Amino acid sequence: MNPLVLQYRKLKRQLLDLKGYLDLDMRGNEIVRRTDFARCPRPVLMLYGLLSTRRTFEVLERRLRRDGYCVFSIKLGGLLQTFNSRGIDECAEQVREKVERLYARFPDMGPLTIVGHSKGGLIGLYYVKRLGGDRRVKAVITLGTPHSGSPTAYLGCALVGLFAKSVWQMTPRSPFIHRLKVGAFPRHVRLVSIYSRGDKVSRYPCCRLGDDGVGNTANVELPALTHREYLYKRVAYEAVRRELELAYSGEAAPPSKPVTLSPVHS
What we know:
The chain has helices at 3-21, 58-66, 88-105, 119-130, 152-160, 165-169, 175-181, 234-249; strands at 43-47, 70-73, 112-117, 137-143, 190-196, 217-222, 259-260. With 266 residues, it is an alpha/beta fold.
C-alpha cells in the first residue's frame, strides 16, 4: 500500500483519538461544592487533564464520595479561563497554594491523596516531587499519564501548541520530562500509574513508571480502555478505589510490579 495512504490513515486515527478525549464545555468548571472540609479525614484531590475541566471527573467523583472519600477539585484556569492549558509547573504551584490555604483553614483535615488524569497526573507528580507536596500527600494515583512523554503530544503541538504550553512539556524529548525524572520520588509517598494499552493518547509504554528499586511505585495495567474511559469505566474506578484503600490503610506498599485487573463492565 502507498506509504502516504498509511500515514494519512494513522493521522486520521490519532485525530479521532484526540477528538474522543476532548470535551470543550465552557461551563465545565461550574460545579457544586459538596465536600465538608471541617470533617474530612480522607481528602482526595482530583486533577484533570489537558484542555479539560473539573466536570470530567463527575462520575468518578460521585463514586468515590459514595465510598466515604472527601473528594474535591481545583479550577486550574488556562484557555478562556476555563480549559487546562497552562504549564504543568504553573498548575502545580497553584495546587500548592490552594492546598496550603485549605490546611491553614482546616488543620484537622486528614492526609491528602491525589488522583490525576493525563496531564493532571504530571501536575500532582511535580507538586509532590518539586514543591514540597510530600509533606501533605500520602499517594499520587495517575490515570493514563504520560510519565515519559507521549508521541501523540507532537500532534497536539501542531494543533494547539500556540496556546497550550503544557502540550510541549509532554513530548518525549521535552526538557520538562527530563528534569522531572531527575532524582527519586519521595519514599514515604506512594506513586501508582494506572494505564491501558488501549489508550492511544498516552501510549504504552510511555505511561509506565520505571522501577527505581525503592518499592513505593507501582504500575497497574487495565484491559483495553480509551484515554477518556478512565474517567467513567467501572474497572478504572475499582483500580482507583483499591489504591486509595491501600493509601489510607497504612499497609506497606506491595512490590513494584505490574498488576492486571480483569475486565468489569461499566
